[in-house]
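Collaboration report, partner site 2.

Our partner group contributed sequences for two proteins of shared interest, and the home lab folded both. The records are reproduced in the order in which they were received, starting with the first partner submission.
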Amino acid sequence: MIRFILADLRRLWAGAVVVVLLVALATALGVTVTLQERALRLGSARAADKFDLVIGAAGSETQLVLSSIFLQPAPLPLMPGGVLAKLSKDPRVTWVAPVGFGDSFAGYPLVGTTRALIGSTVSGFAAGRMFEREGEAVIGAAVKLSVGAEIKPMHGTAQMGGETHAGVVYHVTGKLPPTGTPWDRAILVPIQAVWHVHGLGHDHEHEEEEHHEGEALQVTQAAAADEHGHTPLEATREHAGDLRHEGEAAEAGGHDEHADEDHDHHGAIDADASIDENFAADAPGLPAVLVKPKTIADAYKLRQEYRNGNTLAVFPGEVLTSLYVTLGDARMVLSAVAAGSQGLVAAALVLVTVTHIGQRRRQIGALRAFGAPRLSVFAIVWLELFLLVAVGIGLGFLTGLAAARLIADAFTVRSGIILPVGFTGEDWRMALILLGAAAVLSAVPAILAYRQSPAAALRA
C-alpha cells in the first residue's frame, strides 16, 4: 500500500507540492502570529520586572513607562526636583533613582541615573567598574564600545538633526552583563552630568561659595548701589536667577536667544568632579524617577500619594497589562485572518481532491476488480491526502517558527528587548487539532472512493 501511494505521489509530484505549500503557508501565518505575540508579552514583562514603581509628571501613563523603562525616545514633561529629594529620604523606599534622557551617541541613548540603580539591577560588571566621576560612563552589554572609549554626546539623535555637545566627553569605565532589556543598548552616565550638560544644577553647587563671598564683601558693598538701588551682589544674584530660568526654559523645550548665545558656556561638565547623589529640594526638574519600595504595602501607599495633579505614579505591570489587551485584540484579528485562510485552503483541497478522485475512477475500479477490498481503497486515498496535509502542517510550523525568530531578532536589534520565541504545550495541542482536522478532511474523498462499485468505475 505504501509503495503504491509513493508511486502515485511521484507521478503527480507537481500537484503534491502545491498542496503542501498551500497548507504550509496557511499554517505558518497563524503560528507566526501566535509565537510573536506571546514572545512580545514575555519579553516586555521581563524587561520591566526589576522596576516596581515609576513616578513622573502628570501625563500619559503608557508614555511614562515606555520612555523610562523601555527607553523609547519621547518628550516627557518635567516634574520638580523636590520630588526626588523627598523620595530619597522616605523610609518606605529601599532605593530611588532619577532617569534623565534626551541625548544619544552612535544611535545609543544616553541615560542619566545613579549608581544605586546600576548596583541594584545588575550583578557585577562584565568588564571595568562603576563610574565615580562626572565625566565617566557605564555601557550596556549591547553597546559596541569597549572600556576606555570616548563618548561625545549628541542632543537628540542624528535622525532628528541633533548637534554634538561641544567640549563634553565621557570616558567608559565599565560594561554591564547582558540583561535582555533595552538597558543593554544604553549608555549610563551620572544624572548630575546630564543636568550640567543642559545648564542645570550649577546654582546649588555654588550657593555656599556665593554666601561666603557675600559675607566678605558685606561691609564694602553696603554703601554701594546701582542706579536701581541694588548692591552689586544683589545684581549678580539677580543675573544668576535669570540664567537659571533661561536654562530651565531651554530644558523644557523653550527657546531663548540669550540661552542660545551662552549654550557652550552652560553645556559643560567637570570631568573630574566627584559624584554627589545627595539630592536637595532645589534639584533640577527631571522626567521620571524609578522607585524600589520596601514592601508591597509601601508600594501601594506611594502610588496613591504621588497620583495627584502634579505627579503620576504607576506600576509598570499595570500599564503593560493594558497594552497586552490591545495586543490581544490585534492577535485575535490576525488569528481570524489566519483561520480564514486555512479554511479557504481546506475548501480548495477538498474541491481539488474530489475532482481528482473523479478523474481516477478507472484506477480505483481496476483496484477493486483485482480484488482490493473497499477498506484498502479507502485507506489508500485517505492516507495519500493525509500525508500531504500533515507534511504541510509540519512545514508550516517550522516556517512560522523561523519567521517569528527573524522578527524577534530584528526587534531586539532596535529595542534591546530579547523576545523568547519557542513552542509550548499550547502549540503542540494546536498541532494535534490541525492534524485531527486533516484526518477528517482526508476522509471526504476517501468515502467517495469507498462507495464506488468496480463495474461502474470501469464503465466510466
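Second partner submission, folded after the first:
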Amino acid sequence: MVFWLCTAAAGMAAPALNVLCNVDEAWCAVMKAAFEKTSGLQISMPRFSTGETLDRLRAGKDASAVDVWWGGTGDTHLQAGSENLLQPYQPAHEREMLPWAQNFFAMSGGRSAGIYAGALGFAYNADVLRDLKLPAPTCWKDLTDTAYRGRIQIGDPRSSGTAFTALATLVQLFGEDEAFRFWSALDRNISSYTQAGSAPAKAAARGEALIGISFMHDAVTLKQAGAPLVIVAPCEGTGYEIGAVSIVKGARNLDNARRFVDFALSAEGQATGAAAGQNHVPANALASLPDGAPDISMIRMVDYDFATFGLPEERQRLLDRFDAEIRILN
C-alpha cells in the first residue's frame, strides 16, 4: 500500500485510477484486467478487507489517494456515506439493477450502488468431520457444541465485513443480549479470528479448520474447485450482504472513477465475477447468474436492517461491546 501511494513521488507514472478492492483476490485481478482492456487505462487495484478500507478512508479524509471502493459489505459503505466520505453519482446502468440493488442505492442517498448479493452461512470439511466422527452441524447454535472445540474459524468483526454481518445477523435473529451470549459460547470453539472474511472457508477447504463461517458463495467456489465442503444455510435463518461500489469523495480521477462504476454495474462488468470463479448473485438483471450461485429465494433469510447496521455509531457500539465481552476471552 505504501509503495502504491508513493509511486508518483518516486518518479513513476501515476495510475489513471486508484481502486481499493474488497472481493476475492482472483476477482480483483480479473476485474482489473477487464476494465483496463475496455477503457485503455492503467489502474491500481490493491486488495484489502472491508474494515481496513473504511479505516483508510477515515484516516485520509482530507487528501485521499483513493478514487473508488469496489466490493465489500454494503452496510460498511453506508457507514462511509453517512460520514461524508463518498461522492454521489448516478450510474448509467442503474435502471438495469434488480429491486434489492435499486433499494440499496436509494438508501445510500446515491452514494453507493449494489453490485452483488450473497447469503451468510458456514461450511464444514466432510473428510475431517468423518475422520473425527463428529456430528454434522445444521444450525447456528450447533456450533457451540463442545465437540467443535478449537475447530471453527470466523473473521474478526473489526476488520472483516463478513464477520460484522454475522454479528449483526445474530443480533437480528436472537436479540442483542442472546446474540452476545451465543457468541461467548461460540468463542470457546474458535481457533482463530481471521482478518479477511473469506479466510475461514478457505481454512476449512484445506482441512486446517473443521468449520468456516463465511458467505456461502465463497464456499461454493472452493467446493467447485474440489474441496470436500458441505455448505450449510443455518436452520434458524441467516443474514445476507449486498456488496457495493462507491466513488470516494475528493477522488482525484473523478471522470475515470465514474467510468469504472458504470463498467462495474454493466452486464459485462458483472460477468467478471463468474469469470473469476465467483458465485455471487449479480445486481444487473441482464447479467447471467453463475451456475453455482446459492438460490437465495430458498434460504430462510432475516429481514436485514441495513439502515440501522449501516450507522457508524451502531457499528462502533456493537464492536465496543464485542471487545468488552468477547475479545478479552481470547
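Feedback sent to the partner group on the second submission included the following. The longest strand covers residues 112-125. Residues 25-39 form the longest helix (15 residues).
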